[in-house]
Protein backbone atom coordinates (compact mmCIF):
# COMPACT_ATOMS: atom_id res chain seq x y z
CA UNK A 1 0.00 0.00 0.00
CA UNK A 2 1.26 3.44 -0.92
CA UNK A 3 -0.28 6.31 1.06
CA UNK A 4 -0.21 9.79 -0.49
CA UNK A 5 -0.98 12.79 1.69
CA UNK A 6 -1.74 16.41 0.81
CA UNK A 7 -2.60 15.58 -2.79
CA UNK A 8 -5.22 17.64 -4.64
CA UNK A 9 -6.89 15.79 -7.48
CA UNK A 10 -7.36 17.62 -10.77
CA UNK A 11 -9.60 14.92 -12.27
CA UNK A 12 -10.68 11.29 -12.06
CA UNK A 13 -11.84 9.83 -15.38
CA UNK A 14 -12.70 6.43 -16.80
CA UNK A 15 -10.52 5.37 -19.70
CA UNK A 16 -11.72 2.03 -21.08
CA UNK A 17 -11.27 -0.54 -18.28
CA UNK A 18 -9.16 1.84 -16.23
CA UNK A 19 -9.82 4.68 -13.83
CA UNK A 20 -7.22 7.41 -14.22
CA UNK A 21 -6.63 9.90 -11.40
CA UNK A 22 -4.54 12.96 -12.16
CA UNK A 23 -3.19 15.20 -9.41
CA UNK A 24 -2.85 18.96 -9.74
CA UNK A 25 0.92 18.51 -9.71
CA UNK A 26 0.64 16.27 -12.80
CA UNK A 27 1.16 12.88 -11.18
CA UNK A 28 -1.08 10.12 -12.55
CA UNK A 29 -2.43 6.92 -10.96
CA UNK A 30 -4.24 4.16 -12.90
CA UNK A 31 -6.50 1.56 -11.28
CA UNK A 32 -9.32 -0.91 -11.95
CA UNK A 33 -11.53 0.82 -9.41
CA UNK A 34 -11.66 4.10 -7.48
CA UNK A 35 -13.38 4.27 -4.08
CA UNK A 36 -14.41 7.66 -2.70
CA UNK A 37 -14.45 7.54 1.11
CA UNK A 38 -15.62 11.05 1.95
CA UNK A 39 -17.53 10.64 5.22
CA UNK A 40 -21.17 9.97 5.96
CA UNK A 41 -24.44 11.87 5.77
CA UNK A 42 -27.36 10.48 7.80
CA UNK A 43 -30.50 9.77 5.76
CA UNK A 44 -33.07 11.59 7.90
CA UNK A 45 -35.73 12.54 5.36
CA UNK A 46 -38.28 10.01 6.63
CA UNK A 47 -37.70 11.06 10.25
CA UNK A 48 -38.04 14.73 9.33
CA UNK A 49 -41.29 14.08 7.48
CA UNK A 50 -42.55 12.19 10.54
CA UNK A 51 -41.85 15.29 12.64
CA UNK A 52 -39.03 13.80 14.75
CA UNK A 53 -36.28 16.03 16.13
CA UNK A 54 -33.34 15.81 13.73
CA UNK A 55 -29.93 17.42 14.19
CA UNK A 56 -27.32 15.82 11.95
CA UNK A 57 -29.12 12.54 12.73
CA UNK A 58 -32.25 11.36 14.54
CA UNK A 59 -32.08 12.73 18.08
CA UNK A 60 -32.44 10.05 20.78
CA UNK A 61 -32.04 10.04 24.55
CA UNK A 62 -30.30 7.43 26.70
CA UNK A 63 -33.37 5.18 26.39
CA UNK A 64 -33.09 5.35 22.57
CA UNK A 65 -36.38 7.27 22.49
CA UNK A 66 -36.86 9.84 19.75
CA UNK A 67 -38.78 13.06 20.35
CA UNK A 68 -42.02 11.25 19.44
CA UNK A 69 -43.62 8.98 22.05
CA UNK A 70 -43.48 5.32 21.03
CA UNK A 71 -40.82 5.79 18.34
CA UNK A 72 -37.28 4.61 19.07
CA UNK A 73 -34.20 4.64 16.86
CA UNK A 74 -30.81 2.93 16.83
CA UNK A 75 -27.66 2.75 14.76
CA UNK A 76 -25.59 5.08 12.62
CA UNK A 77 -28.48 7.45 11.95
CA UNK A 78 -28.96 8.44 15.61
CA UNK A 79 -27.35 11.30 17.53
CA UNK A 80 -27.03 10.30 21.16
CA UNK A 81 -25.78 12.03 24.32
CA UNK A 82 -21.97 12.31 24.51
CA UNK A 83 -20.89 11.32 28.04
CA UNK A 84 -17.81 13.57 28.16
CA UNK A 85 -18.78 16.65 26.19
CA UNK A 86 -22.43 16.92 27.20
CA UNK A 87 -23.58 17.45 23.61
CA UNK A 88 -24.70 14.75 21.14
CA UNK A 89 -22.80 12.69 18.59
CA UNK A 90 -23.16 9.90 16.10
CA UNK A 91 -21.37 6.55 16.49
CA UNK A 92 -20.76 4.94 13.12
CA UNK A 93 -19.74 1.41 14.09
CA UNK A 94 -21.31 -2.01 13.87
CA UNK A 95 -21.05 -2.69 17.61
CA UNK A 96 -23.12 0.40 18.40
CA UNK A 97 -25.78 -0.49 15.83
CA UNK A 98 -26.15 -3.93 17.42
CA UNK A 99 -26.02 -2.91 21.09
CA UNK A 100 -28.16 0.21 20.75
CA UNK A 101 -30.82 -1.79 18.91
CA UNK A 102 -30.95 -4.29 21.79
CA UNK A 103 -31.30 -1.44 24.32
CA UNK A 104 -34.00 0.22 22.18
CA UNK A 105 -36.07 -2.97 22.08
CA UNK A 106 -35.67 -3.59 25.82
CA UNK A 107 -36.85 -0.05 26.55
CA UNK A 108 -39.79 -0.44 24.18
CA UNK A 109 -40.73 -3.62 26.05
CA UNK A 110 -40.70 -1.71 29.33
CA UNK A 111 -37.35 -2.97 30.67
CA UNK A 112 -35.48 0.24 31.62
CA UNK A 113 -32.09 -0.06 29.88
CA UNK A 114 -30.06 3.16 29.80
CA UNK A 115 -27.69 3.00 26.85
CA UNK A 116 -24.34 4.59 27.76
CA UNK A 117 -21.84 2.88 25.47
CA UNK A 118 -18.10 3.11 25.32
CA UNK A 119 -17.92 3.08 21.51
CA UNK A 120 -15.57 0.57 19.93
CA UNK A 121 -14.69 -0.74 16.51
CA UNK A 122 -12.35 -3.26 14.97
CA UNK A 123 -10.78 -3.85 11.62
CA UNK A 124 -8.12 -6.04 10.01
CA UNK A 125 -5.73 -4.21 7.68
CA UNK A 126 -2.97 -6.06 5.82
CA UNK A 127 -2.83 -8.77 8.48
CA UNK A 128 -2.77 -6.28 11.37
CA UNK A 129 -5.63 -6.24 13.88
CA UNK A 130 -6.77 -2.67 14.71
CA UNK A 131 -9.19 -1.98 17.57
CA UNK A 132 -10.35 1.33 18.97
CA UNK A 133 -12.56 2.28 21.88
CA UNK A 134 -13.68 5.33 23.78
CA UNK A 135 -13.22 8.89 22.63
CA UNK A 136 -9.57 9.37 21.55
CA UNK A 137 -10.47 12.77 20.08
CA UNK A 138 -11.30 13.94 23.62
CA UNK A 139 -7.69 13.41 24.71
CA UNK A 140 -5.47 16.32 25.66
CA UNK A 141 -3.54 17.52 22.62
CA UNK A 142 -1.72 14.41 21.43
CA UNK A 143 1.52 15.02 23.25
CA UNK A 144 3.43 13.36 26.00
CA UNK A 145 0.41 13.20 28.32
CA UNK A 146 -2.40 12.98 25.77
CA UNK A 147 -1.23 9.81 24.07
CA UNK A 148 0.98 7.22 25.74
CA UNK A 149 2.07 4.03 23.97
CA UNK A 150 2.16 0.92 26.12
CA UNK A 151 5.24 -0.59 24.54
CA UNK A 152 6.65 0.25 21.13
CA UNK A 153 4.31 1.17 18.26
CA UNK A 154 6.95 0.30 15.65
CA UNK A 155 6.43 -3.37 16.54
CA UNK A 156 2.81 -3.12 15.27
CA UNK A 157 1.85 -4.92 18.48
CA UNK A 158 1.02 -2.27 21.09
CA UNK A 159 -1.86 -0.25 22.52
CA UNK A 160 -1.90 3.55 22.50
CA UNK A 161 -3.66 5.07 25.52
CA UNK A 162 -5.46 8.42 25.24
CA UNK A 163 -5.73 10.66 28.31
CA UNK A 164 -7.64 13.73 29.29
CA UNK A 165 -6.02 15.01 32.47
CA UNK A 166 -6.16 11.98 34.76
CA UNK A 167 -8.87 10.13 32.85
CA UNK A 168 -8.30 7.35 30.32
CA UNK A 169 -10.67 8.36 27.51
CA UNK A 170 -9.80 5.81 24.87
CA UNK A 171 -7.38 3.35 23.37
CA UNK A 172 -6.20 2.32 19.92
CA UNK A 173 -4.72 -1.17 19.85
CA UNK A 174 -2.48 -2.47 17.10
CA UNK A 175 -2.56 -6.22 17.74
CA UNK A 176 -2.99 -7.30 21.38
CA UNK A 177 -6.68 -8.30 21.21
CA UNK A 178 -6.69 -9.61 24.80
CA UNK A 179 -5.24 -6.33 26.13
CA UNK A 180 -7.85 -4.44 24.12
CA UNK A 181 -10.68 -6.21 25.97
CA UNK A 182 -9.11 -5.29 29.31
CA UNK A 183 -8.56 -1.68 28.23
CA UNK A 184 -12.17 -1.44 27.09
CA UNK A 185 -13.23 -2.55 30.56
CA UNK A 186 -10.88 -0.02 32.16
CA UNK A 187 -12.08 2.89 29.96
CA UNK A 188 -15.67 2.01 30.95
CA UNK A 189 -15.27 1.21 34.64
CA UNK A 190 -11.90 2.44 35.93
CA UNK A 191 -10.96 5.44 33.78
CA UNK A 192 -9.00 7.06 36.62
CA UNK A 193 -6.54 4.18 36.94
CA UNK A 194 -2.91 5.24 37.30
CA UNK A 195 -1.36 6.36 34.00
CA UNK A 196 2.15 5.10 34.76
CA UNK A 197 0.79 1.73 35.84
CA UNK A 198 -1.27 1.30 32.66
CA UNK A 199 1.52 2.53 30.41
CA UNK A 200 4.00 0.01 31.81
CA UNK A 201 3.98 -3.09 29.55
CA UNK A 202 4.92 -5.14 32.62
CA UNK A 203 1.55 -4.40 34.26
CA UNK A 204 -0.94 -7.21 33.79
CA UNK A 205 -4.11 -5.32 32.81
CA UNK A 206 -6.42 -8.04 34.11
CA UNK A 207 -5.67 -6.99 37.70
CA UNK A 208 -6.40 -3.27 37.18
CA UNK A 209 -9.60 -2.33 39.00
CA UNK A 210 -10.09 -5.83 40.39
C1 LIG B 1 -17.09 0.67 3.74
C2 LIG B 1 -17.51 0.53 5.18
C3 LIG B 1 -16.70 -0.18 6.05
C4 LIG B 1 -17.08 -0.32 7.39
N1 LIG B 1 -16.26 -1.02 8.23
C5 LIG B 1 -16.59 -1.15 9.52
C6 LIG B 1 -15.75 -1.88 10.40
O1 LIG B 1 -14.70 -2.40 10.01
N2 LIG B 1 -16.12 -1.99 11.72
C7 LIG B 1 -17.27 -1.40 12.18
O2 LIG B 1 -17.56 -1.53 13.38
N3 LIG B 1 -18.10 -0.72 11.35
C8 LIG B 1 -17.79 -0.57 10.04
N4 LIG B 1 -18.60 0.14 9.19
C9 LIG B 1 -19.80 0.77 9.76
C10 LIG B 1 -20.96 -0.22 9.86
O3 LIG B 1 -21.19 -0.80 8.59
C11 LIG B 1 -22.19 0.58 10.31
O4 LIG B 1 -21.92 1.15 11.58
C12 LIG B 1 -23.43 -0.30 10.44
O5 LIG B 1 -23.74 -0.92 9.22
C13 LIG B 1 -24.61 0.56 10.89
O6 LIG B 1 -25.78 -0.22 10.92
P1 LIG B 1 -27.20 0.48 10.82
O7 LIG B 1 -28.19 -0.63 10.87
O8 LIG B 1 -27.29 1.57 11.81
O9 LIG B 1 -27.22 1.21 9.40
P2 LIG B 1 -27.09 0.60 7.94
O10 LIG B 1 -26.30 -0.67 7.95
O11 LIG B 1 -26.63 1.74 7.09
O12 LIG B 1 -28.58 0.21 7.58
C14 LIG B 1 -29.58 1.20 7.36
C15 LIG B 1 -30.54 0.65 6.32
O13 LIG B 1 -31.68 1.50 6.25
C16 LIG B 1 -32.03 1.64 4.89
N5 LIG B 1 -32.83 2.88 4.75
C17 LIG B 1 -32.41 4.16 4.80
N6 LIG B 1 -33.45 4.99 4.64
C18 LIG B 1 -34.54 4.23 4.51
C19 LIG B 1 -35.93 4.50 4.31
N7 LIG B 1 -36.38 5.75 4.23
N8 LIG B 1 -36.77 3.46 4.21
C20 LIG B 1 -36.33 2.19 4.30
N9 LIG B 1 -35.03 1.86 4.48
C21 LIG B 1 -34.15 2.87 4.58
C22 LIG B 1 -30.70 1.68 4.16
O14 LIG B 1 -30.86 1.36 2.80
C23 LIG B 1 -29.92 0.60 4.92
O15 LIG B 1 -30.12 -0.68 4.39
C24 LIG B 1 -18.27 0.27 7.85
C25 LIG B 1 -19.08 0.98 6.96
C26 LIG B 1 -18.70 1.11 5.64
C27 LIG B 1 -19.61 1.88 4.70
How would you describe this structure to a colleague?
- With 210 residues, the protein is an alpha+beta fold.
- The protein has three domains: 9-38, no CATH class; 45-108, FAD/NAD(P)-binding domain (3-Layer(bba) Sandwich), CATH 3.50.50.60; 120-207, 2-Layer Sandwich (Enolase-like, domain 1).
- It is built from four helices and eleven strands.
- The protein has helices spanning 45-49, 94-108, 177-189, 195-199, and strands at 9-15, 18-23, 28-31, 58-59, 78-81, 88-89, 120-125, 128-134, 147-149, 158-164, 167-174.
- The strands form three sheets. Strands 7-8-11-10-9 form a five-stranded antiparallel β-sheet. It has a three-stranded antiparallel β-sheet with strand order 1-2-3, with no helix packed on it.
- Strand 10 (158-164) and strand 11 (167-174) form a beta hairpin.
- It is flat and about 60 Å long.
- The mean pLDDT is 94.
- Residues 43, 46, 75-76, 92-95, 97, 121-123 line the site of flavin-adenine dinucleotide.
- InterPro entries: FAD-oxidoreductase/Apoptosis, FAD/NAD-bd_sf, FAD/NAD-binding_dom, FAD/NAD-linked_Rdtase_dimer_sf, Reductase_C.
- Residues 122-205 form the Reductase C-terminal domain.
- It comes from Streptoalloteichus hindustanus.
- Keywords: FAD, Flavoprotein, Oxidoreductase.
- Its cofactor is FAD.
